[in-house]
Design a protein that fits this description.
The chain has 154 residues and is α+β, with helices and mostly antiparallel strands. Helix content is 33%, strand content 18%. It has one domain (3-103, 114-148): Ubiquitin Conjugating Enzyme.
């Protein structure tokens, strides 16, 4: 990797560190600057409150001009996330901008947890249940507990 690329990744990494938001973090996975691990905590007052999700962030060689590939590695029950952790959201596809930082990407995904696009679901069951917040939260907690072995009380 060129020193310019290393500098670019380091600057993006610093942005993630300096965001000041402890609810989202991202770090290189070992020495490979193209492979990162991110974490998003569910925002207070949402169905995901008290839960933490890990993500895989894979940067292409032409980043930031092409979006990274981002998947949830902690299973998440959500209208816009499938069982494999793939995310359906426009800012990772057609609306990507080189101006996005790792921090802004993770904050946008955190917002997506609270405000899904139920009209374009990858998980139709979750999209259908979204209108019933109590049942949705119960299902989120049940699925999280099945995947991780623990979850807060409903």
């Amino acid at each position: 990797m060129s020193s310019l690329s290393t500098l670019h990744y380091s600057a993006r990494f610093s942005t993630a560190q300096m965001s000041g938001n402890k609810d989202v973090t991202a770090f290189p996975n070992g020495d490979n600057l193209f492979d990162w691990v991110g974490t998003i905590s569910g925002s207070k007052g949402t169905a995901y409150e008290g839960l933490s999700f890990k993500l895989s962030i894979k940067f292409p060689p032409d980043y930031p001009f092409t979006a990274p590939t981002v998947t949830f590695t902690t299973p998440v029950y959500h209208p816009n996330v499938d069982a494999a952790g793939n995310i359906c959201v426009d800012f990772l596809k057609t609306r990507w901008s080189a101006a996005y930082s790792v921090s802004s990407l993770l904050l946008s995904l955190q917002s997506l947890l609270a405000d899904p696009n139920v009209d374009s679901p990858l998980n139709p069951h979750a999209a259908g249940l979204w209108a019933n917040p109590v049942e949705y939260r119960k299902t989120v907690l049940k699925k999280y507990k099945e995947a991780t072995g623990s979850a807060p009380e409903a």
